[in-house]
Amino acid sequence: MPFLLHIPLCPKMLTTSQDLQCVRNCDSSNPDDIERFSQPVIQTAQMFLGESGCWLVIAAFTLGRRFFAKDAPLLHGGYEHVGSDDSTEVDPGDELGRPLSVQEEAEPAIKPLVLNADDRIPLVGWKIFLLAMPACCDLAGTTLMNVGLLFVAASIYQMTRGALILFVGLFSVIFLHRKIYLYQWSALFIVVAGVAIVGLAGAISPNPQAQPTPPVPPEVNTFAIREAVKTAAVSSGALQTVLGVLMIAGAQIFTATQFVLEEWILEHYALEPLKVVGWEGIFGFLVTLVGMIILHLAIGQTDAGRYGYFDMREGWREITHYRSIAVTSILIMISIGGFNFFGLSITRSVSATARSIIDTCRTLFIWIVSLGLGWETFKGLQIVGFAFLVYGTFLFNDIVRPPLKACVSRHKARPLLAEEPIEHM
After folding, report:
1. Residues forming beta bridges with residue 269, ordered by sequence position
2. What SS3 state is found at 78?
3. What is the model's pTM?
4. What burial letters (b/e) apply to 347-364, b meaning 16+ CB within 10 Å?
5. SS3 147
6. Tens digit of pLDDT for each residue in 168-203?
7. Distance between CA atoms of 246 and 249, rounded to whole angstroms?
8. pLDDT by residue (tens digit) across 58-109?
9. What angle do the packed helices 273-295 and 323-345 form, to 10 degrees?
10. By three-state DSSP, how is residue 270 classified?
11. Other C-beta atoms lying within 10 Å of the C-beta of residue 65
């Protein structure tokens, strides 16, 4: 069920489709003259607008609870016992006999709208601005990933994001004082090897859709010159693929920092998970908007920066002039809002095993669709890298047992993040 909910909610598939939209010289016979949509900063703003849309769900829930709460007990955030009276009612608990919190006994559909703890200080007033810190990390990480996505296929992007577990592990040990066992360290190295193999696969076989071979003038008949042109094109594509992989992997540092900051904040304060996303969306959009204006004035309006990443005026013209780009922008914002709601209400209610399987299936889904749409070519080495990523992730999350008994911990490992991270994309 969670996987089926994630299938239509793939923001990166829509972002890849948007990156392939032609915006200039679309009728040119020379592929090098064709320019496609490349506005990663605007795409970051789209993401934050989608996250801000979570406030619409919060508003609808608040109105429903105010006007229809008596007719719909679900809106209260819990459940009612059937066939019991006050004298025989038993307080529900978990398998350890611990009383369930308000959020734990809430229905999955409204868990994102229930406080994450009963005994923590509410996150209100000026303390809300603490969420600006993870929002800024989200801004940096998302922008880097959007730029990297311009150079690699969607499946390579999704697989490279597997490096996130490495940085989350390191930062959790350093800042949150979590303990990682030997087999988990080996799992992290396996994940790094998988990311490296995926990047190598993309470098050896660059995506022809993203990097077409420059045409050779008909008057040039020398075989050596033609081969040199093809070799230069392949080398350029390989370098851009490596650059894209490095940018996406580096962006995971900011994403891991975001997760650790959110963990620290939610360990000390109580706030509904969906409101966390909504506030980060507002802060992130405001910071992005200010940054867009500054970068446009400093770089975008210059001759060198025209039509570049920071040309705010050109980006707005492309969105309003080309219907396909405008439609995908709206769909991206809707999908991000839906992705966050279903992600918080469903995947945060199941086990770590189910979440890992969902992420694996989502990566496979993106890969299969990309191959079917011709966005990339099949690479056998990519399967090897993906296998490393899956095995390393499963080993780290205790889904599979370590191959050596000496690596097995006698004590149950404490989760790196007590609060399940809120995955925004």
Report:
1. 121
2. coil
3. 0.73
4. bbbeeeebbbbbbbebbe
5. helix
6. 888 888 887 878 788 888 888 888 888 888 878 877
7. 5
8. 888 888 878 776 555 555 554 444 444 444 444 445 444 445 455 555 555 5
9. 150
10. strand
11. 16
